[in-house]
Design a protein that fits this description.
- The chain is globular.
- It is built from 15 helices and five strands.
- The protein is mainly α and 382 residues long.
- Helix 12 runs antiparallel to helix 13.
- Strand 1, helix 3 and strand 2 form a beta-alpha-beta unit.
- The chain binds zinc ion.
- The site of zinc ion has 8 residues, from helix 1.
- The site of zinc ion (ZN) has 8 residues, from helix 1.
Length: 382
């Protein structure tokens, strides 16, 4: 596969294009973000934005919160820097790990914030995971649509127009490009362009008609009407559009200040990247499926980011990728139980979904290290 000569991301990476000298667009836009964006002007516009909404609604803002490093940093930063009163909204995707739940409690208590937690119907979740896997090769539809749509419903219910997300998408992809030098809006257009994989809650309702359910069961995954959000005067943005995003530095700060703890994630070098994607015990399956389809997983993504920030050498990155990527996760057994599929059906599907020129090697015999909390993960079988 052709790879970016700077960061090593392959041609099968979503939104990646090669620009001059075989350097990718994500590298170029990240260079732009460091050198050309006027971050102090952006910070002043954040000051103004917060003052515009402060004290005028039920809450100063909504903060959608997974408990990962980015949303924890967002909550920490806004509360510490601006002393705002947020409503923290947490959509439970069903796979929240024990260490994450402890982190969350600690963070909420230390910061003194109000929290609304929502868990959708598991029977629906299980069925829609299978459906989105079969149709799109991605089983995370319920999580991504729920995490994006539900907090917007809450913004309407609590009459709170300002919504702060964390990391801007330009850190990893080029759906939005730093070089446009605009504030990325987190709106229905973004939701429909890649969050929901082209499947609305209404579409999904027709697709799973083989099971019995109440149509309202899919309401949490429905993006609110644009006219209702406009009437509210909503403003939904990423904190990372206003302050320069640095996940490594931010993770250190929340560890020191909030006692936030990293975790072992299947397929990841846990000493080096223990702060990345600790939210979900299905992360190993998501990354493994990506590896089968596209020939890379999260290790490539993390080392690419570190190369761009001059934190590791290209050689070290290549060693990490070779050592860790492509190992079979233990969570795959649990996942197959959830969706009632055999491993050979799963592998056949992955083969069909493989993105040219990647051709997956299903017999590499690499296995992930079993995470310490594995036995606590919910099993469908008992
Ligand atoms: Zn690159």
């Amino acid at each position: 596969m052709k790879k970016c000569i700077k960061c090593g991301l392959p041609e099968t990476y979503e939104t990646l294009e090669f620009e001059e000298n075989q350097i990718c667009n994500i590298c170029s836009q990240s260079e732009y973000a460091s050198e050309k964006i006027n971050w102090s002007a952006r910070k002043s516009s954040l000051d103004n934005l917060i003052e515009k909404y402060r004290g005028k609604y039920e809450y100063d803002c909504i903060i959608p919160f997974s408990g990962g490093k980015d949303s924890t940093w967002t909550l920490y930063y806004l509360v510490k820097e601006y002393k705002i009163k947020p409503l923290v909204v947490q959509f439970d995707h069903g796979f929240m790990r024990p260490n994450l739940l402890k982190n969350n409690e600690r963070t909420f208590n230390k910061l003194g914030v109000e929290v609304l937690k929502f868990k959708p119907n598991w029977k629906i979740v299980r069925r829609v995971m299978l459906e989105s896997l079969l149709r799109k090769g991605d089983f995370c539809w319920h999580c991504h649509t729920g995490i994006f749509a539900f907090p917007m419903q809450i913004a309407l219910k609590f009459n709170t127009p300002l919504v702060f997300w964390g990391e801007p998408s330009a850190e990893y992809t080029a759906y939005y490009d730093y070089r446009d030098d605009e504030i990325e809006l987190v709106n229905e257009e973004k939701f429909n362009s890649y969050i929901n994989l082209g499947i609305t809650a209404d579409d999904m309702s027709g697709m799973i008609s083989d099971i019995e359910f109440d149509p309202r069961d899919l309401a949490p995954f429905q993006y609110p009407l644009e006219r209702d959000l406009k009437k509210l005067g909503y403003h939904s943005v990423c904190l990372g559009s206003y302050i320069k995003w640095d996940t490594k530095k931010q993770s250190k700060i929340i560890m020191n200040e909030l006692g936030w703890q990293g975790d072992q994630v299947e397929g990841m070098p846990d000493e080096k990247y223990n702060y990345e994607k600790i939210e979900c015990w299905m992360q190993g399956v998501r990354d493994y499926l990506k590896y089968l389809k596209r020939g890379y997983s999260r290790v490539s993504q993390m080392t690419a980011l570190d190369i761009r920030n001059n934190r590791i050498s290209k050689e070290e990155a290549i060693d990490l990728v070779n050592k860790w990527e492509g190992a079979r996760p233990h969570s795959l057994d649990i996942f197959l139980e959830y969706v009632r599929m055999t491993e050979s059906e799963f592998n056949d599907l992955a083969m069909k979904l493989a993105v040219h020129p990647n051709s997956p090697d299903l017999n590499n015999n690499k296995k992930c290290i079993k995470p310490k909390d594995f036995s606590d993960w919910y099993r469908e079988s008992n």
